[in-house]
Design goal:
This protein is an alpha/beta fold and 321 residues long. It has 11 helices and 14 strands. Helix 1 crosses helix 7 and helix 6 runs parallel beside helix 8.
């Protein structure tokens, strides 16, 4: 029986991942955790954990006989640029603490499977932008991307040297109606729906033609759990897998919204996030994920837009999901 700890359960991915894991493995077998108290998201246990506190991590893992850890706590791209030292410490030391704990427990005969998310931010201005290969130039220009690239190397190192069963996905921009934008460069693709449903003109912080890889949350959750369930012997990559969903730019997304809300209007006012997005891929080659563990995206732009407009609700002048 798996006992699963999700660190960063209050975040965009974490909240929905906890819900999906609790439905699959039973609420008793999923421990939701974050640095501050919040909802259980379908789990029966919530623990306050700072991923930088190694003693607390070890205590909770031992107390609940944890067999899998999803380490999702991080500062994202745009937020990280405002506090680079804080971002580096959280993103790197948080991962390293989990990998060390897995190494120690593995040596004691208590193996701990680890999931850690990388990102398209690990790529950079000299990375091929179209159909970005699994193996290619990676020269990130943000502290978030630098931490993700370094984290990928740590994951592979701990697998090769210590046999830690660590798995990772390079997430594209993730779109979800259940949580608000969280400081990422791709979060315009969430905020735009909020403005559209308020009847407001959306001021986009990216240029109209900035194409980026995206993924709708149900596909992202399915990819994550599928990778964690894949037989270890099938996996050829222990740094991080490219995973593609769909690619579009703000103009294309706005046009798709206007098919449903003809009065919707958008204005483009690129800010500092435009420079970040310009260094990222436009589309991803995820053939390694398809070959190794059968990954294939299921949700396209039309379905994504329809679902977002249906599920992001306006209540008492504010948006709720």
């Amino acid at each position: 029986m798996e006992r699963i700890l999700v660190i960063g359960a209050n975040g965009q991915i974490g909240s929905e991942l906890v819900e999906a894991l609790a439905a699959q493995h039973g609420a008793d077998n999923v421990i939701a955790a974050d640095i501050s108290q919040s909802s259980l998201y379908g789990a029966k246990v919530y623990q306050v954990i700072d991923v930088l506190n190694t003693a607390r991590l070890a205590e909770v893992v031992e107390q609940y006989h944890v067999t899998q850890v999803y380490q999702l706590a991080a500062l994202l791209s745009a937020t990280g640029e405002q506090a680079p030292l804080k971002a580096w410490t959280l993103n790197m030391d948080g991962l390293l603490n989990i990998l060390e704990l897995a190494r120690i427990r593995g040596a004691a005969g208590k193996p701990l499977k680890v999931f850690w998310p990388s990102s398209i931010a690990a790529f950079g201005p000299n990375t091929p932008a179209v159909n970005t290969p699994q193996y290619t130039v990676m020269d990130p220009s943000t502290i978030y991307g630098i931490s993700k690239l370094a984290g990928e190397r740590l994951c592979e190192y701990y697998f090769q040297k210590y046999g830690v069963d660590v798995r990772s996905i390079r997430y594209p921009g993730i779109i979800s109606y259940k949580s608000p934008p969280g400081g990422g460069t791709t979060d315009y693709a969430i905020a735009i729906f909020h403005s559209a449903l308020r009847g407001e003109r959306y001021e986009c912080f990216l240029d109209a033609e900035t194409t980026l890889p995206m993924i709708y949350m149900p596909d992202a959750i399915r990819a994550t759990i599928s990778l964690m369930e894949a037989p270890a012997g099938k996996l050829s990559i222990r740094s991080s897998y490219n995973v593609a969903g769909l690619s579009f730019n703000p103009r294309e997304l706005a046009l798709a919204i206007k098919q449903n809300l003809p009065d919707f209007d958008i204005h483009y006012a690129p800010d500092s996030r435009q420079a970040i997005a310009a260094t990222w891929p436009q589309s991803l080659d995820d053939s390694s994920a398809s070959k190794d563990w059968g990954w294939q995206a299921q949700i396209g732009l039309e379905q994504l837009v329809s679902d977002m407009l249906k599920n992001v609700k306006i209540s008492d002048g504010a948006l709720a999901a």
